[in-house]
Write a structure and sequence with these properties.
Shape of chain A: globular
Number of helices of chain A: 10
Largest interface: A-B, 46 and 46 residues
Largest sheet of chain A: none
Helix content of chain A: over 70%
Oligomer: homodimer
CATH architecture of the largest domain in chain A: Orthogonal Bundle
Number of strands of chain A: 0
CATH topology of the largest domain in chain A: Tetracycline Repressor, domain 2
């Protein structure tokens, strides 16, 4: 009965990702030992690492989901929704990203995997920006990739401020970003 | 001869800060053990901790110097100089900030100390922004503090991208930031 088995696997995978997200947020990435992962997930290390080869791949699975959620929000709604979503994230979870950023920066194979975490979504976002430029809704004196890099950089900046425990006021920020990318 | 003694103390302090900066950049903050600090600084732990009560206070001393340098650059030149200076920083050193950001975020007394690391410089920057608003060189529909928070957030975003090993193209970024803060 492959259908049952597939659904069982999907449930287990979900259980591991959800538990690991809690463990990472609570203890940090380095602090989330195998014992703590077992505790939050409610499965043995044998079962967990049957689904994911290592701790990094669990984090990567979570990052894939986050990126997909943020990217879809952007495509389906607008950048303001993305900003507000970011500002409502758990600072402990955001801190996990910042804990791993240097690891990504110093290990080329991780960085490559990171950049390629969803090429189709990247293409869709790039195409959306290009389309808005053609329609005169975004400035066209910069490349779509330059505008996207800027909008991503804003999200990174929000992540730092939230992790440092500072409030992020999204409305003035959104005014500033809108002026930055508007047709000049 | 208090003058000689003062100058000796200043030299030692300089030696500790310079060595610690190298140790933090090379090994990360957590990885910079007391033994590694001794090695990079060239002084015994007794001597080092005679000048600074703990590792955090050494990092804080370095952060004070960085903040002062960046703030002065901003006041004496312009934001473009700050951006270019940031982009030329050592990603390993920038990574130390990101490693500590969650610590700052979760420990209120550190956060307070962090915010207050140079109140006079904060005031000067705020006054500069207000003056540029009065002269019509910056948008005045937002508070000076909101504009400063945005410019700081851009620097934080640059820090993340550099730490993750991505290039930061300062010229398109500067165009975008200039449009964001220009009179509307």
């Amino acid at each position: 009965m492959p259908k049952v088995s597939d659904s069982h696997r999907a449930d287990r995978r979900r259980q591991i990702l959800d538990g690991a997200r809690r463990a990472f947020a609570r203890h940090g990435y380095e602090g989330a030992t195998v014992a703590r992962l077992e505790q939050e997930v409610g499965l043995s290390r044998g079962a967990i690492f049957n689904y994911f080869p290592n701790k990094w791949s669990i984090f990567y699975g979570l990052a894939l989901e986050d990126y997909d959620r943020v990217g879809r929000l952007w495509l389906d709604e607008e950048y303001g929704s993305v900003l507000r979503h970011m500002a409502s994230e758990d600072p402990d979870w955001i801190g996990v990203y910042l804990e791993l950023i240097r690891k990504i920066g110093t290990q080329p194979e991780l960085r490559e995997q990171w950049v390629q975490r969803n090429p189709d979504l990247n293409d869709e976002l790039m195409e959306r920006v290009a389309e808005l430029q053609r329609r005169g809704e975004l400035r066209d004196d910069l490349e779509p990739g330059e505008l996207l890099a800027f909008l991503g950089l804003i999200l990174d900046g929000i992540a730092v401020r939230m992790s440092a425990g500072f409030p992020v006021e999204t409305e003035p920020l959104l005014k500033l970003v809108s002026s930055a990318i508007a047709p000049q």
